[in-house]
Each structure stands twice: as structure tokens, then as C-alpha cells.
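To the team - fe (ii) ion complex, inputs and output below.
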Amino acid sequence: MERDALIRQMNQGLSLEYALMIQYLQQSYLVQGLSRAVYHDFFIRESEGNRKHAQQLGERIVALGGTPTVEPATIRQTTDLAEMLQHDLEVEREALRLYTELANAMADNVPLRLFFEEMAFKEQDDVWELEKLLEQHKVAIPQKEIRMQRIAS
Ligand SMILES: [Fe+2]
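Output:
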């Protein structure tokens, strides 16, 4: 991939990380009711995680001779908890798609390929966690009860 195109795509990632950082932080302010007991800290933690991702991208954009953007991608706001998580999931999925694409485009550049693979790996974990919070993983339990078999001696 040509250098300018790479920097442009990394800046897209940086914009997504900024958007997530701000979106999660605002959600930590807005979440109320009993959910606040759990989600206030959750949103702060996620915001901080995405700040770190932004930092990692920004440092590498400069190392490649680019200027890191200061513009966040679209930020969506709501006071409804499920909607908040859905908004976060959509941006995390976009970041996962972008880093996967970038990792695949880095065939000749092992360090950058590893970097984008690791970014994709982290985003995948965030996507799975949000999907679980939104109960999107239906698990079928095959047996209601499991009994230990007596081992014949
Ligand atoms: Fe991130």
C-alpha cells in the first residue's frame, strides 16, 4: 500500500478511536438509574482503552511522516443504555473492519502487520463484549443437569 493511502487510513482509525473515547466518556456522564452502578465505570474504562488506541495510532502516523488528525468521527448520543451500547458496537465494528483490512494490506511490512493485527484483536474483544451485553450470542445449553459419572475402580 502506498504511504499516503496508508496514512489516510490510519487517520480514519484515529478518528474512530477519538469518537469512541468521547462517546464512551459522555455515556459515563449520562448513564443513570441502577445501571449506573455498573456502567459508569465500564464506560470510563472503555474510553480510556480507546484513548490508548488513539495514542498508539498517532505515534505511528508521525513515524511514517504523517500528521495525526484531530477530528473525531461521528459521535452519537442518547440517554438510553441499550442504544448507547448499540452505538458503541457499530463504531467498534467499523474499527475492527479497518484494522483487519490494514493488516491484510501489510503483506511486506511485518511490524505494521503485527500492529494492525493486534489492534484488530483488541477491537474484536470489544465487539464480542458489547454483543454479549446486548445478548446477541444465543447459547443453547445441551443438558440442564450434568452428573459426575462414578469411576469404576
Ligand atoms: Fe479502539
